[in-house]
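Researcher: I've got a protein sequence and the SMILES for zinc ion. Could you write out the 3D structure of the bound complex as structure tokens? I'd like something to compare against our soaking experiments later this week.
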Amino acid sequence: MKKLFMLMILIVLGIILYNPIKNMINKEEMKEPDKFIYEDLLNTIKENKVNVSDFTIYGKWLNLKGNLPNEGNYVVVLKNNDEEVTIDTKVDNGNFSLATKINEGLDLETLKISEYLLLLKNKDTNEYYNLINTTKYHDNTYYTITKNGKNNKISFKENVFNNIKYWTITIKEEKLPSDVYDIVIDPGHGGVDTGAGNGSYHESTFTLDYSKALYDELTKAGLKVKLTRETDTNIDHYGVGSRTGIPYETKAKLMLSIHLNSSGNSYQKGVEIYRAYNSSNDYAKLIADNIVNEVGTKYSNNSENKIIDGVYMRVYSKSDIQSLTNDAKKKNYEPYVINDHTTYYYFIRETGGIMTGAFSDGRNPRYKENPYRDYNQGVEAYLCELAYISQNDDLSLVRNKKDSYVKALKNSILSYFNNETTSE
Ligand SMILES: [Zn+2]
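Model: Sure. Here is the predicted complex with zinc ion in place.
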């Protein structure tokens, strides 16, 4: 009797629970077939599209430029089914862009993990337009700076759905490949090229010593750092594995080239930070300010190529161009097309791809070809002339205040990537 009672309870329980359990098991199969994630969004956009004519990544800065479909109030947005991120956009004369300077635009370090369509939005009508990449550059990837041992990989991809072209940007956490680095530190000169000097003191000795110390500090702070040279050796300027090749090959975001200045004028002293043509002063200024404050040195009193206190920019002058033209005639090659918009220092110009006007194609037999000159993704490079080795007060600072110079450089680098600066 007891057994029969238990059996009846089991049968009743079975009947009660049969449907919920069955539903649970079948839930996956019973769902409607998955729609393509952007189907609704793309169907509302349909044939609305605008062409992107410029697509560049300089350091951490993304820039896009293109034509507006018509007069109006437009912004670039990153959009998916859940959210819309508005990007600062400049609209001018029927064109849009994310920036007018090469080191401005969308800071790729600030994007959170997600995937978005790249769209242009008319703020008056709330209409969206697909951005169509008409440049020759496709499928770029960018690795964010290492933070707490982690990196995000940012990928640009172009696709088609129902004949509608669209462009996505995907941000996901991914381990940094072994050959990708956060930053390049370039100890100027080396080997037979000792740089400037004063008595028994040589620029190349200081630049290597300082760069190694900076390497240690940055590594301790969790960054993955590449030195262009680790010993007292003369390295190639151009080509694979060279001073200008390494920044591309490592996909580094920032490069500081460490140098000491020299002048026949014994009054000339202080800090000079050189930036590329058509870049903003902000970051160069920050480096100069940090050095002045930390070391107790001064902004340089050199007025040549000076933009503002501590910030310098050198382009080819008329006489520079003349001497290059003469050199070309002598060596029998077609002179480069260079003007007063061309950044002078090769490790700033040749490391920034098309953004900095890299041009070395090897026609000058003195230099190898820069195989990366046509890239749309390059490092944001600065020449840091820390002091004048030729001036005795400055030489004394460089000999005695290495820790302060290194700390100032370290803090400048950490703030580029919005890391907390340490205050020890
Ligand atoms: Zn130098």
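Model: The pocket of zinc ion is lined by residues 188-189, 195, 203, 259 (CB under 6 Å). The CA atoms of residues 136 and 253 lie 22 Å apart.
Researcher: Great, I'll pass this along to the crystallography team.
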